[in-house]
Amino acid sequence: MTTPPVLILPGLGDSGPAHWQSIWEASGPSFRRVVQRDWDHPQLAEWVATLQQHVAACETPPVLVAHSLACSLVAHWSREFGQHARGALLVSPSDVESPSHTPPEVRGFSPVPNMRFPFPSTVVASTDDPYVDIGRAEHFAQCWGSRFVVIPGAGHINAESGLGAWPEGMALLQELLRGNQDK
Q1: Burial 126-137 (b: 16+ CB within 10 A, else e)
Q2: What is the pLDDT of residue 180?
Q3: Rounded distance, CA 53 to CA 159, Å?
Q4: What is the tens place of the pLDDT at every residue in 110-160?
Q5: Cα R_g (the chain), whole angstroms
Q6: InterPro entries from the xrefs (predicted)?
Q7: Which domains, from first to last, does the chain contain?
């Protein structure tokens, strides 16, 4: 059996070379980054269209691996196209509705859709993420019908968190790829 495609979805500013998303992308051909035209001035409609183009180019439904702003992207995309995904790993969903947590560049992604996804998903959040309160991250997980996983003291779960290849996250992705993820 072939491995389903995995689409890497970075958030605002993209994910640099030390970010676990970039490390995963370099690990094999099934990992593909969705490259947005403008990482610093995101436009919701454009980002959704770009994601859908990448999903449509996949030979089988992909698993989406979103970080930060891209978690909201997946929520918006899923309203129209969610039936085309196998699953999603949503890491550190930034609270685009909160001016105290996120910059003005992301306001165009609000309000965050609070609907159950038509595919299995896991939301991973840290207890000290500066871009979302843990209670808000749990709210997203509940609305989206996602399994909720908490990592104590991991910040924004990015390169600065010192996770390297983040094997614990890869284990969560493997559960989604196998289709035996628990909620």
Answers
A1: beebebbbeebb
A2: 59
A3: 28
A4: 999 999 999 999 999 999 999 999 999 999 999 999 999 999 999 999 999
A5: 15
A6: AB_hydrolase_fold, RBBP9/YdeN
A7: 6-14+22-175 (3.40.50.1820)
Report the Cα 86 to chain-centroid distance in Å: 14
Q: Which amino acid is at 5?
A: P
Q: Over 70: is that where the pLDDT of 1 sits?
A: no
User: Residue 65 and residue 53: Cα distance in Å, rounded?
Assistant: 16
Reading the block at residue 37, the tokens are 């035209």
Tell whether the torsion through CA atoms of 102, 112, 76 and 121 is positive or negative: positive
- What pTM, to 2 d.p., does this model score? 0.95
DSSP code for 7: E
**What torsion do the CA atoms of 146, 38, 104, 163 make, to the nearest 10 degrees?**
50
**Phi and psi, residue 72, nearest 5°:** -65, -35
Inform me whether the pLDDT recorded for 183 exceeds 50: no
Query: Which two tokens mark 7?
Result: 């689409």
* 181: amino acid identity, one letter: Q
Could you please report the per-residue DSSP string of 37-84?
Answer: S-SSS--HHHHHHHHHHHHHTSSSPPEEEEETHHHHHHHHHHHHHGGG
Measure the N-to-C terminal CA separation of the chain; round to a whole number of Å. 25
Whether 92 contacts 125, CB under 8 Å: yes
Cα–Cα–Cα angle for 63, 74, 152, rounded to 5 degrees:
80
